[in-house]
Amino acid sequence: MKELEERINKDGRVIGKDVLKVDSFLNHQIDPVLMEKMGEEFYKHFKDAGVTKILTVESSGIAPAVMTGLQFNVPVVFARKHKSVTLQDDLFTSEVYSFTKKTSNHISISKKYLSSDDNVLIIDDFLANGQAVNGLNDIIKAADASLAGIGIVIEKSFQKGRQLIDKAGIPVYSLARIKAFENGQVVFEPENE
Amino acid sequence: MKELEERINKDGRVIGKDVLKVDSFLNHQIDPVLMEKMGEEFYKHFKDAGVTKILTVESSGIAPAVMTGLQFNVPVVFARKHKSVTLQDDLFTSEVYSFTKKTSNHISISKKYLSSDDNVLIIDDFLANGQAVNGLNDIIKAADASLAGIGIVIEKSFQKGRQLIDKAGIPVYSLARIKAFENGQVVFEPENE
Q1: pLDDT digits (tens, 9 = 90+) for B150-177
Q2: Is residue A123 part of a domain?
Q3: Which residues does xanthine bind (chains A, B) (predicted)?
Q4: Within the 39-98 window of chain A, which residues sit less than 8 Å (CB to CB) from chain B?
Q5: Cα–Cα distance between A95 and A108 in angstroms, integer?
Q6: Which ipTM was obtained for this model?
Q7: Residues 6+ apart with CB under 8 A from A17
């Protein structure tokens, strides 16, 4: 998505070897017009996949997920994060390790909002090592729901998440794919490759 | 907002004397089409207020705030919640007490995304005792920004938040105003009163 790549070039900040901060339009301040275009883009890609529900994780996934849900006219569910979790009968739960923060979180979804009738599109802000996507996929499996595909705003292709998803044969579409950070600059994968 | 009141009657669950659960369309599962209509409604009400920025708190405020920002074509900033906070020079911070959870949270916003040039519309999912709104207003004052008004999805008018805001002379618009819970049923304030 050309406009997103341009926005990353303009407003993203590369920190160290593998962190990109996009606090000015995605993770803290949000550009709602850009979010709407992302929703349209995800819809264009997955419109024939029979999506019945959008799944994401709080908080940064919510804006792109809701805009995508609006296009599909389906409900959006966001998993809640907890430091620890007391197992509850009414929740699907999974553990997610963050390599950036070096901590584990639990994520959970109420059993009321995911069932075997659902064909789920996962939407998330970043794909790095694939931990969040894995956690959401565990929950989808526990609910006996099916996974229609994964839509990612920004993929860091040099980390292992993308490879794991491709290996599992899951359809994935990332709006911006970052090949590398070089001298504090973002290098994108060529589009439509 | 008639459609919202009907949805609360249909899908809301009254718990005890003062809690309303709307997990099925607002706080966990989100109805994006309803969110879009809320954004339009807030825009209609505040369109002449000179709003330059929308402010909310993660996570449940994000969806209505982003849809409102889309109508106004202005950025949305969501305050992050922390259990505790180490004071940082680059953050505006405030403390928010939750009567429901009986815990204090700190909320913070990067100083980069709020300035004296901003005229802020606060959007939040619930207004009860007004703690979250107060915390956001503290941050707006610390940034020397101005407050254009407050948009609330669901107001529990029998708690003290609304009264405090009215007393402070701040323009507030709530899409659904709950007068009382009676026998597990929601009683709304008359519209356009």
Answers
A1: 999 999 999 999 999 999 999 999 999 9
A2: yes
A3: 20, 27, 156
A4: 58-59, 62-63, 66-67, 69-70, 73, 75-78, 80
A5: 9
A6: 0.96
A7: A181
Q: Answer whether residue B36 is part of any domain.
A: yes
Q: How far is CA A36 from CA A45, A64, B74, B180, in A?
A: 15, 7, 13, 37
Inter-chain touch A32–B59, beta carbons under 8 Å: no
B-interface mutation test, from A13, A51, A54, A70, most B Cβ less than 10 A away: A70
pLDDT bin (cut points 50, 70, 90) of residue A102 is confident
What's the CA gap between A35 and A1, in Å, rounded?
A: 12
Q: Does any domain span residue B193?
A: no
pLDDT tens track for B48-83: 999 999 999 999 999 999 999 999 999 999 999 987
- What domain count does chain B have? 1
Cα separation, B99 vs B94, in Å, equals 16
In a domain, A193, yes or no: no
* Element of type H or E holding A135: helix A131-142
Cβ neighbourhood burial of B18 (10 Å; 0-12, 13-18, 19+): middle
Helix axes B62-72, A32-46, angle to 10 degrees: 110
List all residues 6 or more positions away from A126 whose beta carbon is below 8 Å from its beta carbon. Answer: A60, A132, A152, A153, A154, A155, A156
Q: Are A114 and A53 in contact (CB under 8 A)?
A: yes
Mean pLDDT, range B117-127, rounded to an integer? 98
| C-beta atoms of A59 and B80 within 8 A | yes
Q: Which of residues 143-182 of A touch B (CB under 8 A)?
A: none
3-state secondary structure of A20: strand
Domain that holds residue B154: 2-188
Query: In angstroms, rounded to a whole number, what is the distance separating the alpha carbons of residues B169 and A166?
Result: 56
Q: Are A55 and A120 in contact (CB under 8 A)?
A: yes
CATH at B152: 3.40.50.2020
Distance in angstroms (rounded) separating the CA atoms of residues B27 and B153 = 11
CA dist A51 and B30 (Å) reads: 15
The number of beta carbons lying within 10 Å of the beta carbon of residue B16 is 7
Output the CA angle A14-A19-A24, nearest 5 degrees: 60
